[in-house]
Amino acid sequence: MISALLISLVASVALPQGPAPEALNFAHFPDRLHAFVWRNWTLVPLDRMAEVVGATEEDLLTVGTSMGLPVPPNIPESQLQRTYITIIRANWHLLNYDQLLVLLGWDAAHLAYTLQEDDFLFIKLGSLKPACPPLAWAPPSEAAQARAAQIAAQVKGLFGDTAGVTPDPPLSFVEHLSAPVNGGSEETGESLFHPRFCYSYFALYGDPLIEQDPFPENYLKRLHASGVDGVWLQGVLYTLAPFPWQPDLSVKWEQRLERLCELTERAAAQGMGIYMYLNEPRTMPLSFFEQHPELRGVTEGDHAALCTSVPQVRDYIRESVARICAAAPKLAGFFTITASENLTNCWSHHRGNECPRCGTRNPGEVIAEVNASIQAGIDQAGSAARLIAWDWGWNDTWAPDAIAALPAKVSHMSVSEWSLPINRGGIESTVGEYSISAIGPGPRAQRHWKLARERGLNTLAKIQANNTWELSSVPYIPAVANVAKHVAALRDTGVTGLMLGWTLGGHPSPNLEVVYELGKKRGDGTYPSAEEAMEIVATRRFGPAAQEVVGAWTEISTAFSEFPYNGGLVYCAPLQMGPANLLWAAATGYRATMVGIPYDDLDSWRVIYPPEVFIAQLDKVAAGFDAGVRRMQDAAESLAEPEFKQAVLKEHDVTLAAYVHFKSVSNQALFVLLRNRLNTDGLSETDANALKEGIMEMLRAEKRLAEEMYHLRAKDSRLGFEATNQYFYMPLDLIEKTINCEWLLACDWPQKSQQ
């Protein structure tokens, strides 16, 4: 997991706190102890759970089985290493920090680093820690035992005696994707687009060159067969080369570079390049600058930037990159983010005016200078590595100056669909994040690419071929026609390469294969149309059912273009949790968090859309996916060939999972809307009864969807997973949702509080 080096960086930093509101009460369980046991039954070994609450394993085994849970499965260390974010999220409202540390088996520095640096986890959890009094073992009361027996009867009635223990156990997909490749056709032929690179479907984000293998050989073979020719991972310079001002920060840098060399050579043997993401230079604690005040730039919280207007800082960047390139000569390249994510250069968070040096300089010049320092390191090593400057976060007024100042060898990349005008349900807006529902390219990217081409720079498009935050809980969104139309349109823009996804979207898929086909020139000098590329891929995958599947993809894509898109909406709505997101009898008062915990915060879910429009648009999307599901089901039933039949049914299940998620968000939004209206004063009895009946209908609908999603997840361990968020839900979370719905169905309405 996180290396000792990185933990040392926060050894003296307190665990982040923020506000400490009262933790939520999960009233559908007998008490908090039962909730703790349920939530961790398939996540954490029983002995670790017992240590947390001061119980024996037998005590907790009795509690678990009293709720209908089977004997807990063996939980290997490899699972714990890939589900720690899931564990933290599941216990955020149950345990205080001290007990959470015991559950994880970590020290405070490890947890502090993870919350602060593992893809902004503390922000994803709401930038707060709910107040949780210590949870201690006590024998369950008679009332708790009676409630547990009710839960057991419901669980066994719906899910049998093996609830939560599934045919495809958690993370089985890692083994499936890493297994030897048996036959199958490999993609051949040159593409208009090079590189075509994506993130690993299951790589750990924190310290990938120390942690588990992000790119197993057979996984790379599968990606290459899908038309991908590159993968990326993040790098942090002071972990990859000696940090001149504090060398102890760079412990194990040699080991990381050896590992990088090994990975790049292995990838190259598979026809794949490895690209390193740099977001540099990283900030240092304020205490660091007591010894090095001349390096200090913009301050943010208890850290400050290493000012890149200082020549020594640029030298550090150059020397570090040169060392990386020399150690890994087969490294394909780097890409940079220089105006977003972590605070790096003084203008990276748009506050360079606060620096006495950078404040007098053009922001575009500062950003270009960072990229120039990296290119200088590549050149110093005599490396063929390519540098891609991504304009993510660049202020539109800075971009022309930044592009004008980039070195001639640097390539420029822009998010293709950014600033694309859209109208969804009569609400006009623009795309300000990643989207498959909107078909690019958009005006911002085209404007920036034009400036870059005028300088003679190569240009790349950042797209999302498989997933976006519109839905990341399936391995790919089968809106293949939208992806195909987007890539076909990019052929006329002059872009020569594609970044296929952020941390989401690294699973082999028909989407990726279609992208590849669209870049292949035919013998007559033409390229296939979007429809022709889909037919080629569908015929290869689904045989005689190809036309029906292409029809389903097209119908799905048309419906997906109705998605109520907004940048805040895709971060906050329960799109990733889907039917695992709990319902609440009264308002929780918690704000939805960024791709974390949606709660019941309808206003943050819908953002610019009126509630009724938000719900109606999601229903349109769900209806299109449902039509695709039925079309694929009919196609599968008509097939005699087992191989093609199985392939269509797998596509059917991914589509059905997407339908369940979108329909569930609509249901949840309507539930919250009706619940809130029921809690208003002055309702007539007729209106109140109508609202209550609507609430009951939504509870029954959500229970059905949670059951359906459970059975889908039981046979496909990919569902609910995304690399940087790990599992958004486990099978037991979906069963918990059915318990939650049954509990609320039995409540008296309206409810004025959670207690």
Helix content: 40-55%
Strand content: 5-15%
The main sheet orders its strands as: 1-2-3-7-8-9-12-13
| Rounded mean pLDDT score | 95
Q: How many strands appear in the DSSP assignment?
A: 15
Straight-line N-to-C gap = 39 Å
Pairing-aware structural class of the strands and helices? alpha/beta
> What does the radius of gyration come to?
26 Å
Tell me about the largest β-sheet: 8 strands, parallel, barrel
Q: Main attributes?
A:
alpha/beta, disordered N terminus
Notes on the protein architecture:
The protein has 755 residues and is of the alpha/beta class. The chain contains 28 helices and 15 strands. The strands form four sheets. An eight-stranded parallel barrel has the order 1-2-3-7-8-9-12-13. α17 (399-405) links the parallel β8 and β9 (411-415). α16 runs parallel beside α17 (399-405) and α20 (510-518) crosses α21 (530-542). The longest helix is centred in the C-terminal third of the chain and has 37 residues, at 642-678.
